[in-house]
Amino acid sequence: MRWGAAVVACALLTVAPAVASGATATTEQRGAPAPAETMERDAAAAARADRARAQAREVLAQRRFQPTNVPAPLRGLRERIGAALRPLGGPFERAYRWIADGPLVVWALLAALVLAGAALLATRAGVRRARDSARTASSRGAAVAGGSASLSAVELREAADRAERSGDLDDALRLRFRAGLVDLDSRALIELRPALTNSELLRAVPSPTLADLVEGFESVAYGGRPAGADDLRDARDGWPRVADEVRA
Asked: Residue 226 to residues 17, 128, 232: CA-CA distances in angstroms?
């Protein structure tokens, strides 16, 4: 609305003289009237033009069409801070221009650096996850939790045979590991309990074969590696040797 009124006022200022001159020209085209009539019409046209100009000036003089000064109490401080920091941004600006206007090899080097950084971060994250997984595996109980706690070693080995025949090699390996622990407990070589860790198991039963069995079990149970036929064969052949190695 503000700018519409301003445009109308400017139009009035522009059109007013034209109105007066147009009126005079029209009079001339109609013929040559009496001098008194001509002067009368010219005076009326001039009066209308003066009123239009006065109205336009009155509109433009209103406050809404005047410039507004917004207070800026911190303007000087901002300008001083900007002037002090401007030299510090020079090197960054030059570096940006050099990169933006640089050849293709510059962008290739930057892309290689970004990829190298991402690979380094991913490698560190993988190492951290592996370390955490190993720490968790060593702190967990070597026993397989669940309803198998009350089963005998013979029953656990039979369940392992059934799981192996059905193709569930992971469960078969876990059941054979549990059966081996139950057998060691029955021989009073360990005290089987839920809080027993694999580290404690290896300290209580210093057997090289047991160490290999524990390593294979952890890689499957906690490391995510699928059990294979070799793991089941090693478990079947290895657990009977553990007690013999301890007695020797």
From this structure: 98, 22, 11
Partners of 197 in beta bridges: 141
What pLDDT is stored for residue 59 in this prediction? Answer: 72
Write out pLDDT tens, residues 34-64. 567 777 777 777 888 888 888 777 777 777 6
Per-residue burial over 221-244, b if 16 or more Cβ lie within 10 Å, else e, is beeeeebeeebbebbeebbeebbe
pTM, two decimals, is 0.42
Q: Give how far Cα 39 sits from Cα of 34, 36, 88, 166, 241, Å.
A: 9, 5, 75, 121, 136
Task: Give the HSE-up count for residue 67: Cα atoms under 13 Å, Cβ half-sphere.
Answer: 2
Domain boundaries, the chain: 2-65, 147-247
Q: Please enumerate in sequence order all residues whose Cβ is within 8 A of that of 127, keeping only pairs 6 or more positions apart, or say none.
A: none
Name the architecture of domain 147-247: Up-down Bundle (1.20)
